[in-house]
Amino acid sequence: MSSLAIEKLTKRFGASVAVDELDLAVREGELVALLGPSGCGKTTTLRMVAGFLPPSSGRVLFDKEDVTRLPAYKRATGMVFQSYALFPHMSAADNVGFGLEMRGLNATERRKKVEDALRLVRLVHLAERLPRELSGGQQQRVALARALVINPRIFLLDEPLSNLDAKLRAEVRLEIRSLQQRLGLTTLMVTHDREEALTMADRLVVMEGGRVRQIGTPRELYDAPKDAFVADFVGRCNILSGRRESETQFRTGSGLLLPVDSATDECKDASAFALRPERITLQTGGADGVQGRLKAVTYMGAQTEYVVAVGAEVLVVVQSTPQANEPLAGLKPDDTVFLHWDRKAPRLVPLALPRV
Ligand SMILES: Nc1ncnc2c1ncn2[C@@H]1O[C@H](COP(=O)(O)OP(=O)(O)O)[C@@H](O)[C@H]1O
Ligand SMILES: [Mg+2]
């Protein structure tokens, strides 16, 4: 496998800029996910890396070799699409072997490689089936095998799980991640699904409007987002606009004072308070903490979600579901509750909403 570097990569369509001076380095064997809302430039980036789309400016490098002007078929990337893109009239094995035939391998070589690739995705026994005789998850595994069979330098995945139902998605997600790690595939994956990105990627790139908002490990982005857009995009978050009142307090736009630490804002423009719902602890008594009124309780199995009105603001709290005999189990709308959090838990960040 190769490493991948993207330097100041830009794509303009007429007057609009789909990808704007994107810089990114993917190490050999690393899985990096591009995460962002629809239209932020993820697929365009991937197509430029694959060689399907010429950049307006900037460079793409595989192992420091400049491939920017190399046509797609000479780049040896393995690409998997959301739609599988299998040939409907060809068996699984023929779909996998198609690219090898194009590359001029003889039948014996092809058969061996196809079998190896199908074995990787545990589909050898279904090699002769047509795509329509396979489930969605199996079809996507055929597409994976087809991408892997050419020994790609770079593995590219565009929303590979979007067409699968929730249970299959979790299964294929694990399958892709385990293959990627086992084979040490240098992978660039595109997704708008934060759970997919958080669970699969070594590092995430949060994109918005063709630009990078933040790059980091899932944990870095979840725990230390640089702005409110990233905080909100990588997970649920209570985001309240306002400003720092003092060393230990944040004042929201509506005048509510909330406890914060003296050193949580590294930026000058700390115009938002960002706090994850699970970092808040809910209590029914003890007058300390931030007092609120319960608006809604939603049971979600292992967790329960509480919507709490605090002054003119609303905060969402997620807790492990209490046992039936615990005080929290009896809570109902209109009850008074008290919210607690570690002062270091809230991040004070720029509000930085999407550019429109
Ligand atoms: N061939 C094209 N011609 C014109 N505009 C395009 C073309 N492809 C993509 N775009 C525009 O570029 C932007 C980024 O698209 P895309 O990369 O597909 O986003 P994503 O994959 O993040 O949803 C969008 O505004 C889209 O409409
Ligand atoms: Mg896309």
Question: What layout of secondary structure does this protein have?
Answer:
Elements: E1 4-13, E2 16-26, E3 31-35, H1 42-50, E4 57-62, E5 65-66, E6 77-80, H2 92-102, H3 107-120, H4 136-148, E7 154-158, H5 166-183, E8 187-191, H6 194-200, E9 203-208, E10 211-216, H7 218-223, H8 228-233, E11 238-246, E12 249-252, E13 257-259, E14 272-275, E15 281-283, E16 290-299, E17 303-310, E18 313-320, E19 336-340, E20 347-349
Helix pairs in contact: 2-3, 2-4, 3-4, 4-5
Bound molecules: adenosine-5'-diphosphate and magnesium ion (MG).
What's this entry about, in short?
With 356 residues, the chain is α+β, with helices and mostly antiparallel strands. The chain has helices spanning 42-50, 92-102, 107-120, 136-148, 166-183, 194-200, 218-223, 228-233; strands at 4-13, 16-26, 31-35, 57-62, 65-66, 77-80, 154-158, 187-191, 203-208, 211-216, 238-246, 249-252, 257-259, 272-275, 281-283, 290-299, 303-310, 313-320, 336-340, 347-349.
How is this structure best described in words?
By secondary structure, the protein is an alpha+beta fold. It has 2 domains: 4-223, P-loop containing nucleotide triphosphate hydrolases (Rossmann fold); 237-349, OB fold (Dihydrolipoamide Acetyltransferase, E2P), CATH 2.40.50.140. Helices cover 24% and strands 33% of the residues. The protein has 8 helices and 20 strands. The strands form 4 sheets. It has a 6-stranded mixed beta sheet with strand order 6-7-8-3-9-10, sandwiched between helices. Strand 12 and strand 13 (257-259) form a beta hairpin. It starts with a strand and ends in a 7-residue tail after the last strand. It binds adenosine-5'-diphosphate and magnesium ion (MG). Adenosine-5'-diphosphate binds at residues 13, 18, 36, 38-44.
